[in-house]
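Write out this protein's structure.
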Amino acid sequence: MQCTGAGVKLQPGSYQVQPDSALEAHILVTCLQTRTSAFEIDLSGSTLNALVGGIYLNQCRGVTLHGPATLTYTQSQYPYAQGTIKTVSTDSLQYNIQIHADFLQTWQRMLVVFANRESGGGVVYDGVTRLTLPLNRRGTDFVVDFSKTIQLNANTFAVTLVRYPGIIYVNDLVVVTQPTDAVGIACSSCSGCTVRDFILPTAAGFAFYDGTPPGGNTWLNLALAPSKVPGSDGQLPLMSSIHDGFHCTSGKVGPTINNCQFVSTGDDGIAIHGRFSTVVKVIREEGALILGAPILNPGELNSGDTIVIYTPDGRRLGSTNVVSVSVVTAPVPSSTYDNVFGSDYSRYSYLKVIVTMWQPGFVGMPAGSFVSPTSRVGNNYAITNCYIFNGRGRGLIVRASQSLIQGNTIIHMTDTSIHMAPGLDFSREAGFNEDMLVRDNYLEGEQQGIILGANLHGSTPFIYADNYNVRYINNTVVGSQTSPLTITSSGNVVVQNNRFINILCSATVDNTRDYPWQIQKVAFQLANVYGIVFSGNSLTFNSGCARSQTNLNAPVYLVNVTHIVGAVNPTMSVAGTIVVGTAAIQQRPAVAGIQPAPKD
């Protein structure tokens, strides 16, 4: 290795490196806080064979880590095993699986190391196409109880699942993951860093992780995809990372992600978010709140941060800034139930947060109100020119603001292509979406196309316009069987020059809804939207539509939508013939009118 004051260069070659026992990192770079000059880590021409984790940059400023290089895993240490399903029980809970030859050692290791645990998860793939299963068959939650596994012969094992996985057939292919949380390449509390030109065939957790960045980091030319080299039995690896391809948490500034590929991920392609917390106690005389959440620490919320407080039904009470944060003991019984996030307080940590201003809306703050740390959700990110394919999860799940999503291709995911909604559920992922531009993206597959919304646990959308100033321009959505466009709980939205092609066209699946409040056979589903502009959108059906299910007389469903500008109905074409709906919309009045989110 060559070292200078400006960087280090690893000589090209293949390396087997051992992980740090604590951080599971094979290359660990901890930077001095006082160093601000540029620093280069050049791994060009190298292949790193990992055992557990990967490369970890900690508290770095202005560091460039780059290849071209490959970070892969020793075959026996892969974070998952895969095989072919040979038998399925009538209750769909017992299976015989023939483990593929090159994954047998990994499978046996997992059975020993995790003998009394459940698998981290599992995904089922079509045995012919090697794609994740159609949405109506599920197959995304194949969780094995390792303690009940029985070996039948040299490579075939009887396994028992912990819950129903969906409609699984003999000769389907399956991946079973180990319960780990390691990362391929991670930046922790870094700013102004660049990671570029890496190939990762797999990762034992997130492939790329950007944790609590104080400033924006850049991720360029990254390729996450299973190896294309067949195993000794001719089988190709099915999965890449066992969690998200890219994950950013609690950033003061979000990442720039450009020209990257995330293929066959074990969960979402790209996720960007902060963390919600619950107002457990109000101490008005001190200008203080005690917040609680399972993951809550001063590293993700501290002096100078901005927070916004919402009632349990999503009404914005106001924003304020944090003066100080301190760890405190539980102020309420652990059995207290959190109605917003659906759990008791038994795993909660607590922070006492003193704020600069007590907004008028804070007076009489309802129990169970929740907090979004709006300066720590990854605002000002950019996701451009990325390719996301065949993952178990969503293409993009983004919960931040002042950002750009442009020129991406997302194909065949098991959940929404572009998901823009807060995680008001067990995930607790903050926050809402404001001042967003989503343009020139190509989305293909049965999965839901685009959603902008907010609700609790999949229930009726909030009546408040908590998402604001979002523009969808020149996007193409092809093949969605459910809700190619859903917008709720939003204000000042633009939907312009978007193309929807062969949507709701499945030959075998009748359902076209994602949520109970929606209705069948509708292309656009909107509820509780205050101000929306429609212009130049089109709906096209051609020979690629196996069975058209869209109600062409009323392709748009509006519930409590006001201040509409432009033609709601898209231009419709069926086999080259223009069709004009006799009813432009289906409008259902709501019990209570929506309100735009107040700004303070």
